[in-house]
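Incident log, structure service

09:12 report received: a user says their structure output differs between two submissions of the same chain.
09:20 pulled the input from the user's history:
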Amino acid sequence: MTTPTLRSPHQKTTGLVYFARMLDKIRLHAAGQLHADYIPNLGLGFDGQCCRLLHIDYPALVERVRAGGTDEEILAWAFQRGRQPSDEEVLVWTEFMRKRGWNDEASDRLRQRKAESGFTDRDDIQTFFDYIDLDEGRDPRARTP
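09:34 re-ran on a clean worker, output below:
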């Protein structure tokens, strides 16, 4: 599913992966432009994990995003409203999220999603971030580390 205005989960905001993508989904949903497939999981899954890392409630984040501001301003708000993870916690978060689905309890779900999308021949897709990029029309092999 191609969603050109939805950024890759690899995109970092002040070192934090996934946050920019979550904001994109909130903005697109508010504008009535988010693909229907994403709507049932808003605030859940990776969105929920990111909010729990920051100790913020998803509905409060939605309200803040709708008020406007840059990704960095909204992340600064999240740090003030909830908590600011240490550099080490951001590193652990980044590496955990970047490798999610690779030899962990989410591997079966990743295989299922790849099969549903017709990507069973793509052995190079070993993480959810890479699956998301491929599913949305970005080539995960073109990404630089």
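09:41 both user submissions now match this output. Likely a transient worker issue. Closing.
09:42 reviewer note: The first strand starts at residue 12 and ends at 13. The chain has seven helices and two strands.
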